[in-house]
Amino acid sequence: MAMAHETTPLRVATLTTSNTTCLAAHNGLLYSGSANQIAVFDLTNDFTHIDTLRINDAASGSVKSIAFGPWKIFTAHQDCKIRVWKITRSEPPRHRLLATLPTVKDRLYRFISPGNYVRVRRHHKRLWIEHWDAVSGVVVNGGFVYSVSWDRSFKVWSASDHKCLLSVKAHDDAVNAVAVGQNGVVYTGSADGVIGVWEIREGKKKKYTLVGTLDNHKSTVNAIALNERGWAMFSGSSDRSIMVWKKEEAGKQIAFVETLSGHQGAILSLYTLQDFLVSGSEDRTLRIWRGDVTNGYHCTTVIDGHKSPVKSLVAVRAGERSLMICSASLDGEIQVWSFMF
């Protein structure tokens, strides 16, 4: 595969924040989550800081994940909660807190019946609609919100009225990552080293059934990403490997394709766009991979610009033949890179 026309990424900006824990991009804006707040930058206007989403609860802890629905933002937090924000139609857009999940209304509806409680620890029960440990990931797909937690479960919520619809005991250890593909197929990555593949089953009640377990990784699965069409999946682990998977038989099975090696530390973040895969690692570097599941992926570029492990990253189209890559490290520094291809 010819790569001669690609150039070394150029660092175009450095944004200093407070202990950035996750990044996300939406409609030309960059969202940087940290402890008790989310900073918003304009990617199209010199990376100007335009807003801050503040959580007034000091116990909320760090923001673990950010996802977007129509005029809403869903954020996952250390304090076991999901927060919903309304995006205003102003210019520049502003944000206000809309709800905290599970909602008070949902709790009141369920708290009387003993059947709505599950045992989470010895002598300790919680409502099944509640996460009881940090919410580590959140994804919006169609009219649903999917959350995963260190409590070993994933839950499904209505994106419109914010009710919890389903809760699934998914793994034997903390769930770190989630991705949702076509027809609502859910992929969960866990500290137990396993990726669970879940499909919805119709019946008296809709429920998710485990249809596959991918256990090729030798250590904690930290990140999962699907390509834009959903037919390829990428997983990153503390074993320093990135694995490529391909959906087969109309999406009902998924097969291992190859292992991408090169990072010298745990894989902490993955992001895919077009035929590119970008990975961030504990080794303080980013790698840009290019290819497809038929011909294989190849590392075209190594970016060595951080002084601390790369915890999160996001890539957006910046032109017909260019990408903008934003990467955040554990020291709170966000680097913005321009990549021509």
From TrEMBL:
<dbReference type="InterPro" id="IPR015943">
    <property type="entry name" value="WD40/YVTN_repeat-like_dom_sf"/>
</dbReference>
<feature type="repeat" description="WD">
    <location>
        <begin position="168"/>
        <end position="208"/>
    </location>
</feature>
<feature type="repeat" description="WD">
    <location>
        <begin position="214"/>
        <end position="246"/>
    </location>
</feature>
<dbReference type="InterPro" id="IPR020472">
    <property type="entry name" value="WD40_PAC1"/>
</dbReference>
<dbReference type="InterPro" id="IPR036322">
    <property type="entry name" value="WD40_repeat_dom_sf"/>
</dbReference>
<dbReference type="InterPro" id="IPR019775">
    <property type="entry name" value="WD40_repeat_CS"/>
</dbReference>
<dbReference type="InterPro" id="IPR045182">
    <property type="entry name" value="JINGUBANG-like"/>
</dbReference>
<feature type="repeat" description="WD">
    <location>
        <begin position="303"/>
        <end position="341"/>
    </location>
</feature>
<keyword id="KW-0677">Repeat</keyword>
<feature type="repeat" description="WD">
    <location>
        <begin position="260"/>
        <end position="289"/>
    </location>
</feature>
<keyword id="KW-0853">WD repeat</keyword>
<dbReference type="Pfam" id="PF00400">
    <property type="entry name" value="WD40"/>
</dbReference>
<dbReference type="InterPro" id="IPR001680">
    <property type="entry name" value="WD40_rpt"/>
</dbReference>
<protein>
    <submittedName>
        <fullName>Uncharacterized protein</fullName>
    </submittedName>
</protein>
